[in-house]
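dumping this here so i dont lose it
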């Protein structure tokens, strides 16, 4: 796990602790599970996060139904598309990858 508690990209900030997402200072409500999925993607920006990794790291289980993970990714895609960004790439039968210029941010929310 990374020690980074805040990530920023294209006007977005995501605070890992608390699962708090904002765009240019405006809060964007997300569910806790959606926040855990986003945190895992951001920690691994540019790399494929395998479905099994989501199960063990976001859900803390060995198996999670494909529909459950897909719903969380869909929720994130809808948020990002609202602001013109398509950051999440599906890697068929493997997992997902976050594509974007992500960097740690400083300061709390």
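and the seq i came up w/
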């Amino acid at each position: 796990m990374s020690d980074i508690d805040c990530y920023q990209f294209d006007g977005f900030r995501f605070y890992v602790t608390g699962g708090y997402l904002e765009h240019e200072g405006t809060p964007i409500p997300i569910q806790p599970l959606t926040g855990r999925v986003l945190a895992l993607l951001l920690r691994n920006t540019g790399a494929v996060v395998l479905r099994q990794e989501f199960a063990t790291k976001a859900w803390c289980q060995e198996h999670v139904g494909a529909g459950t993970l897909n719903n969380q990714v869909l929720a994130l895609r809808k948020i990002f598309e609202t602001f013109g960004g398509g950051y999440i790439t599906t890697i068929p039968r493997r997992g997902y990858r976050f594509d974007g210029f992500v960097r740690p941010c400083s300061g709390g929310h």
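The chain has a mean pLDDT of 89.
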